[in-house]
Amino acid sequence: MELAAWLIFLLPLISAVTIGIGAFRSKPISAGISIAAVVGSFILTFVMVANGSEFPDGQGPSPKVSWLRLDGLSVDIGLKIDGLSKLMLCVVTGVGSLIHIFSLGYMKEDRDFSRYFAFLSLFIFSMLGIVLADNFVMMFIFWELVGVSSYLLIGFWFDKPSAADAAKKAFMTNRVGDFGFLLGILMVWAAFGSVSFDVLEKEKATVLCGLAGFLIFCGAIGKSAQAPLHVWLPDAMEGPTPVSALIHAATMVAAGVYMLCRVFFLIEGTWAMEAIAWIGGITSLMAALMAVQQDDIKRILAYSTLSQLGYMVMVVGLGGETNSDYYKITNVAGTDAAMFHLTTHAFFKAMLFLGAGSVIYACHHEQDIWKMGGLRRRMPRTYWTFLIGTLALCGVPLFSGFFSKEAILTVAYKESMPLFLIAVAVAVLTTFYMTRLFLVAFCGEPRSKHAEHAKESPVVMTLPLLILAVPSVVAGYFNMHAPDPLILFASLIAVVFGALLANSIYRNATDDPLPVRLGFIARAMKARFWFDEIYQWFIDKVQERLAKLADIIDRWIIAGLLVRGAHGSTEFAGRVLRLAQTGNLQTYAFWFAAGLAAVLVFALS
Amino acid sequence: MGDQLKFVQLEMMVVALGLLVLIADLAMAPSRRRLLGYLSAAGLFVVFLLSFRDGYTALVNESTEAFFNSRYKVDGLALFFKRFFLIAGIFVLVFAVDFSERLRSGMAEYYSFIVFALSGMMFAASANDFSMLFVSIELITITFYILVSFQRHRLHSLEAGVKYLILGAVSSAFMIYGIALVFGVAGSLQFDDLHAQQSELIQSKVFLFGMLFLFAGLAFKISAFPFQVWAPDVYQGAPTPTTAFLAVGSKAAGFVLLIRLLVAAVPEVTAEWTSVLLVISALTILYGNLCALPQRNLKRLLAYSGIANAGYLLMGIVAQSEEGTVAILYYLAGYLFTVMAAFMIINLLTKEGEGEDISCLSGLSKRSPFLAFAMTLAAVSLAGIPPLAGFFGKFLLVKSVATEAFGNTCFFVLLAVAVFGVVVSIYYYFGIVRTIFWGRRKADEPTPPPVTIGLPVRIVLGCCVAAMLYLGLLPNKPVKWAETAAKVGVTSK
Lengths: 605, 493
What we know:
The complex is a heterodimer. By secondary structure, chain A is mainly α. Chain A is globular and about 105 Å long. Chain A starts with a helix and ends with a helix. Chain B is mainly α. Chain B has a domain of 221 residues. Helices cover 74% and strands 0% of the residues of chain B. Chain B has 22 helices and no strands. Classes of the chains: A mainly alpha, B mainly alpha.
């Protein structure tokens, strides 16, 4: 089983390297290697789950290779396999496999087909590194690798300036959060002298844990796109749509939540939890509001992802006692609920993104929902799967999203009333914007030529949709339990209310009436509360000015005075000294004798 | 006496080899004389291998009392340097064969003089007495007078020869004067005797006066400030193999004698002179590096770099510890391969003393990637960048001074100067690297053809590159060798 664990981890790396070294010359071979690797990882994961194997399993340490040994610090590349990481492995390799297959169709025409698959494999490898990491340093390394590979994937069409910018933005925003993460890791190391999860878990919590936990959470703010570092995620939709599905549904953004669950023992019972819960709640509400007024199909989904991630982060922060009804992954209700929602969300959101990709593909890369419409008859398979995804996301009973959302609401209800109300409001908004999206894009009459001529996408693209539809419906049943009537009632009301409201406004609408009705509020939503503008202002007014100042210092004082000055004076000294070298023998003999005299005087006086 | 000659067996072989070359020259057709160079290199290689014979290395433990009344020492230090000189000699001979077309006449004499100079250096490595010291030094210097001016058709070469002759004669005069004074006070020419009575001798001004004159003569050899003026002109004018031998062999001979005299024989005098040596070392580093800065002629540049390196090596003497001696040995070993490689490459790229300008290197990365690589390594090693030999040597030298520095704050000044010198030197060494990879030729100039390199030169360059990397990357063993050599460097009677 150890070998299997290593293989799960390393197969995608082998694939990326093989493609990079030579296989990239052949498109089918590259795609084949890449898909084989991720599917292989998935099958091995499945075997592992079926076997019930865990590392460390009490008989010995988990499989590891020593990577760095210093006095007071030893860092391994080690694999930690428990319920938490197995669940995540299933999500990453399972959804990853389907996205790889979907990409076969979506990227068929692309010039850099092989490069795309190499990057995908690299991304999966990095992601698996985070999932399997058994210590902070390894997690951080792969955390950064995910940052790099997502940079490569978002900026895959780097000749498109908006894609290149989005990739930069994603990378840099993530780096801001990662700085906090790194500080947190250093703090943990300073406080406990170890970075291994197994060792740290046994340590007693200290005062430092709150601060360290919050700093570590900063990493999650970046990766899981929580406010105020959420700005990169919508822009990251510039990447190919399967990438959006992979990064923004199943893997990268989930990494933050996963990491919080992994290191929950550190933040448990500290003030950091409250901060995490509130940041999650605020993000969730804000993103839902923004989603209401977006017109780009992928952006709506992106904001919805933000909102759902906010849910997960919030519930991690709420913590709480575990309920015996649950399938227990961890011993905390909050992290269980978060992981539950993460899993169901990964399935239906990946499906929604892939469905959006299918729509975009069919409409010749048209992404504005107001230029779609009437796709129901033209793309039935996409239509039905998208409908399932929408129902799941809204939390309609019997669909997976219902159960996981219900789990979150249960925890919120128990732990914090204000956040429970926010969560319910978000549920209303979610139903509202998803119904809007669905009605506008799929129902009514076609509002553009592209939509009129849309055709169902090829099987290689619809097949993953159909496959994903299954867990989107049933994933919730694995974790069923008797719901609290009040919460059941609240979530049902939210769904019905949101759907009816959206239906009344958008049924057969040809343009959006909300801006007229809501005025300023709608504009604020559409402008995403001017976050980007505020950051831009900050960069222009503060950072640019500081940069100019630094430039002046560098140019005039460091380069001018210090460097050039030092260079000039030494060079001048050299030229002056060279004057002694006249080439005249008599002079030389004179120097020689004078030198000797000087030495004699100096030594004997 | 007869069986005592075993102490000089290597030297006798080398001298015999030189004579053989001269005689064989008479019998050989002029077209095949190049072969003589290779043969003598091969002969030296055999001698080099013989130096590892148990029968020879066992002499280290045998007392040389009976032999020349202990005027001649075969110890670890001598053995280290004899091998050092042999390697240098082999390289220079291969180099000289490559160069021989430019000599026009007297090819075989050129080889044999190299061999004779080598024998002088090997004698110097064992000198433990002023007469031995003087004779071996003169054997080296006088052959070098000839080697420097060997290209008689070139005015530069003649000029360099005359300068070296006259300044060398001056320095020899100082040295013999110094020896006379020392003998007058001490009543003995043997280092061991000086060692025994150094505490009384140190009281005598005349003795110190004489020792300083002697020091000046040796400082001339190693081109330390203020006795360095000859170096740039002579380095530039001399045939390049001579220059390489001068830079490596002659300098190392100076250092082995300095170690014998200042570290082993009269350490108390050295302690007395700490500040003098310190100032000389610092000024040499500064002078060499600063003058190299505006330099465009590659051979001159290396001459100044050689002066600076003499300064660094003097740091090992200033440290007055075994560690310092180890550092000197290690540094010299690295220096041998680095400088040899640099001069060989310069020689391959220039013709007849023309175009020794640094710009001859531009485009080298395209003309010959191997040469570009080797030259880059040499420059980087000289600049003291890890992981090359030059770095580790400098590190040992600086360390040897730094460990002593807490007793004497002046040492910190020396360290600061050394670091400053390294920084300055990075500028001009990397100028070389920059020219190799990014230098542009003038538009109207035709692109020079790829460089052709003969197999022997290629082998020697390969050895140099391997040695630079080996000494830099795996310093443990070489440091051990240097340590065993440095241990027995101290004598007592």
